[in-house]
Design a protein that fits this description.
The protein has one helix spanning about 5-10; strands spanning about 1-5, 15, 20-25, 35, 50. The chain is mainly beta and about 55 residues long. Strands 1-4-2 form a 3-stranded antiparallel β-sheet, with no helix packed on it. Strands 3-5 form a two-stranded parallel sheet.
Length: about 55
C-alpha cells in the first residue's frame, strides 16, 4: 500500500484502492491510494482505516 501517482506505479502492479474500501488517518487524496496483492486474494478482506502497527 502506498500513496502516489497511479500512472507511475501501475507498471509495478499497483492499482487504485476501490472508493471507500480503505482510509488513512489525516488528509489523503483517495485517488492516490494504491495497493498491490502479494498473493492471490491477499486484499480481499482489507477494509477500514489503516494506522501504524501496535
Amino acid at each position: 500500500m502506498l500513496v502516489g501517482a497511479e500512472q507511475f506505479f501501475a507498471p509495478s502492479g499497483f492499482t487504485r484502492v476501490p472508493d471507500g474500501r480503505v482510509s488513512l488517518p489525516g488528509p489523503t487524496d483517495p485517488t492516490r491510494l494504491l495497493w498491490q496483492a502479494l498473493r492471490p486474494g491477499g486484499l480481499d478482506k482489507i477494509e477500514g482505516e489503516l494506522g501504524a502497527p501496535l
